[in-house]
Amino acid sequence: MDKVTAIKQSERFQDFSTGIIDNVMRAQSDNIRAMFISHSKEAADTIVSGLRSKDFGVRYGTSKEILDRAGFRPADVVEHRVKHENELKIVHIRGDAEKHVTIDTDYEEAL
């Protein structure tokens, strides 16, 4: 029993065990990912079909979901303003933020 305990506590056994667990988890993740991929067209069709609902709330939610997934969330729209007059001022404006981040710096031309 002492030898088995010593083996189980060894670094080589720990690395071996971790490797096996990682491989099993990776294989399961690949199987799950493949299952989702095989049903993704049906899932997308289901989301899009909500656009034809008679319920305005369902149509609105579906529209918002589709726009969000297409990358048109308000938080994704960023405006950059840059002004050059011997100074550099960068203003970062996020569509969902009330406060704007401003970075001011002065610079001189190098000769």
Radius of gyration: 27 Å
How many runs of DSSP E, i.e. beta strands?
A: 3
The portion of residues forming beta strands comes to 15-25%
Helix-residue proportion: 40-55%
Structural class: alpha+beta
Which residues form runs of ≥5 with pLDDT under 50? none
Strand order of the largest sheet: 1-2-3
Largest sheet: 3 strands, antiparallel
Shape call: flat
Question: How many domains comprise the coordinates?
Answer: 2
Structure write-up:
With 111 residues, this protein is α+β, with helices and mostly antiparallel strands. The protein is built from 3 helices and 3 strands; from the N terminus they run H-H-H-E-E-E. The chain folds into 2 domains: 71 residues, no CATH class; 30 residues, no CATH class. A hairpin with a 6-residue loop joins strand 2 and strand 3. The longest helix is centred in the first third of the chain and has 39 residues. It is flat. The protein starts with a helix and ends in a 5-residue tail after the last strand. The model has no long low-confidence stretch (mean pLDDT 80).
